[in-house]
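[scheduler] slot 2 assigned
[scheduler] job type: sequence-to-structure, two independent chains
[scheduler] chain ordering preserved from manifest
[runner] begin chain α
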Amino acid sequence: MIEHLRRSILPFVTGVAAGAAGLLIFSGEFEKRSPNAMPPSPAAPLLAASETVIGEPLIYPSAGRAKVTAAVVTLAPGQETGWHTHGSPVVGYVLEGTLNVDYGDKGVRTYRAGDAMLEAIGFAHNGRNAGAGPMRILAVFIGAEGMATSAPAAAPAKP
């Protein structure tokens, strides 16, 4: 009988204790009660912008159902993306390497691992891996169903 009670009550008591601990942690009471509690880890902001890197206002697509596409773009040393535009906002975060982006008459910008940007939307640009190793960037395209993430564009005329 005692063995039966121990097998049936012990898991119940353990479950109740675990649940109570979970409630304390998620309610914030744990931090107030425990002097050794670690503070919650805040999110590290990477980017907050209402304009693209070249000063265009942030505009979301209005046609079609919203669609977000995330991709990791990898370029070998010296490799280029080719001149292109985006029809919707693109957030980029350089994971590895160095990326030079030529914005024509708006200049060239250099992005390194850890840099985030709100990419140019309707303005032709070309990215080039400027480092000795691979360059990887996480690109998050904030578009709509049926909308391409990018479109080829002609290089701007040289002055």
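[runner] end chain α
[runner] begin chain β
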Amino acid sequence: MSNFYSFIRGRVIPVLLVIGALIIFGISVILPLKKVYSAKKWVKTECFMTESFVEKTYGGKEKVNHNPKFKYKYKYKGKKFIGSDYNFQKYEGIERAQKLVAKFPVSSNQMCYVNPENPKVAVLSINLDKRQFISALLFIIVMLILALILFFGYEKNDSQMSE
């Protein structure tokens, strides 16, 4: 029975860690990068900021999230639209949210990027936050190291048991 548990610990758990890390990396880095790449073709147009504030939400035990919230008007091919997205990532943290809100004050004219295939979709920025990319990369590295330790630790324990 102990061989079964050591197999699970030494083979299955590392594989699950790697799969989980790759899924998180894909969601937090690859998908936004794909959107940014396609948004390079979007049309840059002027927009007018109608709302810009930091929203405070509560999640779980005493956890407070601060997210920038925007609303802006823009025209594309003579039609009027309202947008609300900053870019393709989710932002949390009071400092980042306040900086973004200060960058896009109410009643200011800004530039936004409109999807010509679906003009209801627009963003204020087509750039990604490098800090989120770096933190996702660090997470992947830690998960891979942990998986390697478990995997090769199993190999070592197996060879010691057979002696």
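[runner] end chain β
[qc] chain β: The chain has a mean pLDDT of 81.
[scheduler] slot 2 released
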